[in-house]
């Protein structure tokens, strides 16, 4: 039985080349999906090495980087309200501790 591995290279915030690798995937597809997820996160401004960051910290940074500069005031208020609701629900929960199921329960 083959065990698949994925490697993702990226440039960190200091301009240094970094590599993340993970093995133990049962199929090539699982490895590719994991690699695609990391690349997507990196391209959206994520810090691939820091999974101990709080979810709310990550959410606020994402908002400030990708949305805040171009939004109308009314839309900004909606985002800030959403951040408040997420803060009430998740508190100090770390990003790595939120599963897809947990997030889906929040969205309901």
UniProtKB/TrEMBL annotation:
Lineage start: Bacteria, Bacillati, Bacillota, Bacilli, Lactobacillales
Keywords: DNA-binding
Pfam families (UniProt xref): Arm-DNA-bind_4, Phage_int_SAM_3
Domain Integrase SAM-like N-terminal residues, every copy: 57-107
Protein name: Integrase
Protein origin, superkingdom: Bacteria
Gene Ontology BP annotations: DNA integration
Xref: Gene3D superfamilies: 1.10.150.130
Keyword Oxidoreductase: no
Cross-referenced InterPro entries: AP2-like_int_N, DNA_brk_join_enz, Integrase_recombinase_N, Integrase_SAM-like_N
GO MF, one annotated term: DNA binding
Span of domain AP2-like integrase N-terminal: 4-43
């Amino acid at each position: 039985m083959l065990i698949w591995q994925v490697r993702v290279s990226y440039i960190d915030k200091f301009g240094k080349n970094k590599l993340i690798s993970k093995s133990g995937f049962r199929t090539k597809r699982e490895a590719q999906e994991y690699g695609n997820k990391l690349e997507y996160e990196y391209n959206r401004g994520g810090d691939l090495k820091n999974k101990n960051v709080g979810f709310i910290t990550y959410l606020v940074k994402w908002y400030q980087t990708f949305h805040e500069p171009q939004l109308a005031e009314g839309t900004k208020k909606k985002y800030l309200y959403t951040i408040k609701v997420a803060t009430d629900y998740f508190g100090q929960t770390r990003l790595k501790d939120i599963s897809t199921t947990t997030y889906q329960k929040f969205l309901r």
